[in-house]
Amino acid sequence: MTQPLAPSARRYAIGMLLVIYIFNFLDRQIVNILAEPIKIELGLADWQLGMLTGLAFAAFYTVLGIPIARYAEKADRVKIISVAVGVWSLFTIACGLAANFTQLLLARIGVGVGEAGCSPPAHSLITDYTPKEERASALAIYSMGIPLGSLAGMALGGLIADAFGWRVAFFVAGAPGIILSIMAFLTLPEPRRGLEKKVVPVKGPSFADALRELKSKKSFWWISIGAALSAMVGYGHIAFYGSFYLRNHGEGLTAMAASVNEMIGVSFGPIGFVGTALGLIIGICGAAGTFLGGVLADRAARKNVSGYATVPAIAGLVTVIPFIAAMLVDNVALSFLFLAIPVFAGAIWYGPIFASAQSLVHPQTRATAAAVLLFIINLVGLGLGPLLVGTFSDIFAQTMGAAEGIRWSMVVFGGMGGIASIAFFLAARTLKDEVVA
Questions:
Q1: What residue intervals traverse the membrane (predicted)?
Q2: Does 271 have pLDDT greater than 70?
């Protein structure tokens, strides 16, 4: 049994893992804001964009996550994460060299292969670093990498694409990860290293045993369903935010960009402006929602551990109406304002749900639990979300045109937040009786 790190060491370690996760999502999500210039240069359909942003990445990311997690149950988790950062960063750079859809697809698969080695061992490490009563908050801080990385990907990708083209954006996004990989290897603590010489190694549970433990937890499966549906909405929408605004609010974006350029003396193009605007909304509101979700869940769980599920359930209900309003209003500024609400509320679930999964299993199966949860979230959410939004957009576009097609595809998927809330409420009924540690 490992002991939590001292506060200063814990802050550094979780901060380093947060930076890694920011780059994880930066490299994963930068393709979203680059979708329109990639579509034009390579002559792609929306379903192909959905493949690049979702299924191509998710297929290998989800499948490899479980064997890597099994290895992480007994191996050096810091080394696993360090190698993973280097691999996905190199493949991000390779995306900028792609000459056609197939080459870009293969590079995106490579990014997914590398990123599969990040979150399961990171969740396991954070759980070892942190006292039980602070678990949701610590995992929420780590999960802030999702909105902050999306902010960086959207803003950086848009600005660089405007100035130098979409290929250079991939080069700039991938290069820092090589340095980060080395820093993580040299400075991140692995609590197991100090125990290796002090205790007799005990064989951990087999994968079949781990699955049997998870199978017995009804709340884990309801949590997984709710998280997968929430992720389908989030990933499906974020993959096409840039395309939606560029197609439906082109004139409004140009006018807003011109006003901002005159006000602060910069030179935003449409892609750079919408990327920065969306990045700020997703980054600031998403990070605030993620952090608040962890804090609220930890407070609620002190009275009743089912708070880990009820907090995201209530938040999911809040997302639906403001999102639909954001898609339907004609004014781009008003649309951005409405969008901030579901982005904030839609990020609340990360910390509570990941913390509940870690609390439902014994220490020897925590990385596996994280991997199985992430497998479901990413296969359904990341794998199908962008692909389905893109496919419905192509179908609707046949009669409505490309702009209205993407609008109504986004609206159709906007209602799933309410369905996810039902699953979270069902998880809350049994969570208290199934928590282990």
A1: 12-35, 47-68, 80-99, 105-126, 138-160, 166-188, 220-244, 264-297, 309-329, 335-355, 367-388, 408-428
A2: yes
Note the pLDDT tens digit of each residue in 36-89. Answer: 889 889 998 888 887 887 777 777 777 788 888 888 888 889 999 999 999 999
For the chain, helix (H) and strand (E) counts, in that order, are 23, 0
Alpha helices in 188-306 (DSSP H): 207-215, 218-238, 241-248, 250-264, 270-280, 286-303
Please list, in sequence order, all residues whose beta carbon lies within 8 angstroms of the beta carbon of residue 191, skipping any fewer than 6 positions away: 2, 3, 5, 125, 128, 129
Domains of the chain: 7-188+205-434 (1.20.1250.20)
Of 151, 405, 123, give the one whose Cα is nearest residue 276: 151
Task: Please tell me the distance from the alpha carbon of residue 105 to that of residue 305, in angstroms, as a whole number.
Answer: 42
Tokens of 389: 């939004």
- The sign of the dihedral angle between the CA atoms of 347, 348, 353, 356 is positive
pLDDT digits (tens, 9 = 90+) for 387-416: 889 899 999 999 999 999 999 999 998 888
d(CA 405, CA 403): 5
Is the whole model's pTM more than 0.85, yes or no? no
Place of tokens 């988790």: 77
